[in-house]
């Protein structure tokens, strides 16, 4: 374990997904104390805001999780010093590369120390569950992003955040890679190979001026125009593209391209290509991309479903897809439904 500098925040958030994010399905399920502010705020987007002179019945309104002062209360488990805790169910099972424990706007009420425990279970854990420590007790700074790496490559489903002795945390991020779970699917069932929940990742794009290509593979339909991938306006003859690493190798049977909320800025056309790569070093140099869907028109604010237009068959197994848009614009979601090669599942 080591503390990371703020440059690492950009690397973590661009290369990995926040497995705790509420948009993936992350939830706070048990908490020792949330007198001033609920633990569910930990999973919300952004860094948290501050409202001056705004009070509610429990006290000062804070955009985060904040417990009462612990002075005079019981000691912790097994006689150790007191700590408050919250148990969080991750939106997707996966491995964790790093944590962001953000105390934004918690200046005189931040914890002195934090620690993180994890478990992989299909049941709902509690405080007595056999937790495994993945971030030992470390000091944190008030009103700051506190970034730490995670040197454990096991898969987890739940995290427990401990704060010593009490106080407030604005946001809690667990950046990593989601892992597809075979037992979640029936035999012969089509799988969204690109979905972030199944391990898909938006790894590159020609342009991400307005938003990230990772939004393409998030669950559900986009909530607004900011919840998609949108490029700036092109003034040349080229086109924009986004590359998605599939969560598992597989063939492609059906594709969905959703332009929800993109009405005056949707692309005129799209095409889809795919490739099977052993090394991503060849991602941009390889000329072996197969055409999955030939160039075809798009329309504003609607789901486009392609089945008959898919040009590949089950003999073609892919690791990556490239969505091409002509010439630019915004796409809300991309779904790649296919038959996974379960022998390659982690």
What distinguishing features does this structure have?
single chain, 346 residues, mainly beta, Jelly Rolls, 2 domains, 9-stranded antiparallel sheet, 1 helix
Describe the overall structure.
By secondary structure, the chain is mostly beta strands. It has one helix at 7-15, and strands at 3-4, 17-18, 27-31, 55-56, 59-60, 65-66, 84-102, 113-119, 132-139, 145-149, 156-164, 168-169, 171-178, 191-192, 201-205, 229-230, 240-258, 269-275, 290-297, 303-306, 318-326, 330-331, 333-340. Strands 1, 2, 3, 7, 8, 9, 10, 11 and 13 form a nine-stranded antiparallel β-sheet that branches. Strands 14, 15, 17, 18, 19, 20, 21 and 23 form an eight-stranded antiparallel β-sheet that branches.
Question: What is the fold's blueprint, element by element?
Answer:
Layout: E1 3-4, H1 7-15, E2 17-18, E3 27-31, E4 55-56, E5 59-60, E6 65-66, E7 84-102, E8 113-119, E9 132-139, E10 145-149, E11 156-164, E12 168-169, E13 171-178, E14 191-192, E15 201-205, E16 229-230, E17 240-258, E18 269-275, E19 290-297, E20 303-306, E21 318-326, E22 330-331, E23 333-340
Antiparallel strand pairs: 1-10, 2-13, 3-7, 4-5, 6-12, 7-10, 7-11, 7-13, 8-9, 8-11, 14-23, 15-17, 16-22, 17-20, 17-21, 17-23, 18-19, 18-21
> What is the count of structural domains?
2
Q: List SSEs in N-to-C order.
A: EHEEEEEEEEEEEEEEEEEEEEEE
Q: Indicate the low-confidence ranges by residue numbers.
A: none
DSSP summary: helix tally:
1
By CATH reckoning, the class of the largest domain would read Mainly Beta
């Amino acid at each position: 374990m080591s503390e990371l500098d703020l440059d690492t925040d950009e690397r973590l958030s661009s290369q990995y997904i926040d497995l705790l994010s509420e948009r993936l399905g992350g939830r706070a399920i048990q908490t020792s104390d949330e007198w001033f502010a609920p633990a569910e705020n930990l999973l919300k987007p952004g860094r948290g805001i501050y409202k001056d002179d705004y009070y509610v019945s429990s006290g000062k309104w804070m955009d985060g999780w904040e417990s009462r002062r612990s002075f005079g209360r019981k000691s912790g488990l097994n006689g150790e010093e007191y700590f408050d805790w919250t148990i969080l169910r991750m939106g997707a099972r996966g491995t964790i590369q790093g944590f962001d424990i953000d105390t934004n706007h918690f200046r005189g009420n931040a914890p002195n120390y934090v620690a993180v425990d994890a478990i992989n279970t299909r049941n709902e854990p509690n405080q007595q569950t056999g937790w495994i420590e993945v971030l030992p007790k470390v000091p944190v700074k008030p009103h700051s992003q506190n970034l730490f790496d995670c040197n454990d490559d096991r898969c987890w489903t739940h995290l427990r955040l401990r704060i010593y002795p009490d106080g407030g945390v604005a946001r809690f991020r667990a950046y990593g890679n989601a892992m597809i779970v075979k037992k979640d699917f029936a035999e012969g069932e089509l799988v969204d190979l690109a979905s972030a929940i199944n391990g898909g990742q938006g790894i590159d794009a020609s342009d991400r001026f307005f938003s990230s290509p990772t939004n393409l593979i998030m669950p559900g339909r986009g909530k607004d125009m900011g919840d998609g991938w949108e490029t700036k306006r092109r003034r040349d003859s080229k086109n924009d593209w986004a590359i998605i690493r599939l969560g598992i190798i597989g063939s492609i049977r059906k594709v969905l391209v959703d332009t929800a909320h993109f009405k005056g800025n949707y692309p005129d056309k799209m095409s889809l290509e795919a490739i099977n790569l052993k090394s991503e070093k060849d991602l941009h140099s390889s000329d072996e991309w197969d055409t999955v869907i030939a160039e075809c028109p798009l329309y504003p604010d609607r789901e486009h479903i392609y089945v008959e237009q898919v040009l590949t068959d089950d003999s073609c197994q892919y690791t990556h897809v490239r969505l091409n848009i002509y010439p630019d614009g915004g796409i809300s979601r991309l779904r790649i439904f296919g038959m996974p090669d379960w022998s390659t599942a982690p």
